[in-house]
């Protein structure tokens, strides 16, 4: 399953990179661009489906199935908070600032999604463990450092990437995008530790963390965006990511094995 997940991510990255290059070279029109994007996602899903279908006769405990259903519903706390955040941004930002923010958050959000994708295969390994030993925590820290170095490299390359993907008309987004990209540094350890918590079949703890993170996101957006506009939207996102790390770190300590 880990190999299939990694393969799906690699295929998705290659297809989207090819589509972006064709669009940048004016070989592809916008309508064909959208159609190609949807087709690429469909191909990735088909790849995942047919490879998973080959894995048969896997016995799954009923408790695991119930837990999976529960956390799927509990994840909607974060979905609702994200949409409230977006609504507030759309309601209070001027059109120019809104365009700058949307473009600025593209690459940081893509980086966050990649980190989340990397953490998924770790869940099966975490589920076999009783806790986080010191040696395992050290290995996680090494992974954190590698991902953070890649984020710093991405931050340096952002001016070129934004110019390549969106053109010079969105060059004003670079400053904000670099700030948002740096805030992903806090997301790296939070995501990996949260993956460990999810693997422990503790729905009540998962719910508590989701509610706290959702409240932080909504409260930050409600207070800061109307007051400071674009800067408030960026500050709200940074505060959310920083506090998410502290919330997850605090809860994961109960699984530490000295």
Would you give an account of this structure?
With 258 residues, the chain is an all-alpha fold. It is built from 10 helices and 2 strands. It is globular, with a radius of gyration of 20 Å.
Main attributes of the structure:
258 residues
Could you give a short description of this structure?
With 258 residues, the chain is mainly α.
User: Which percent bin holds the helix content?
Assistant: over 70%
The radius of gyration over CA amounts to 20 Å
**Model regions low in confidence, pLDDT < 50 over at least 5 residues:** 1-5
- What pattern of helices and strands is seen along the backbone? HHHHHHHEHHHE
Percent of residues in beta strands?
A: under 5%
**Sheet having the most strands:** 2 strands, parallel
Helical/strand content category: mainly alpha
Q: Which oligomerization state do the chains in this entry correspond to?
A: single chain
Number of strands: 2
Q: Please, what is the average pLDDT?
A: 79
- How far apart, in Å, are the first and last alpha carbons? 31 Å
Strand order across the biggest sheet?
A: 1-2
**How many helices in DSSP terms?**
10
Shape: globular
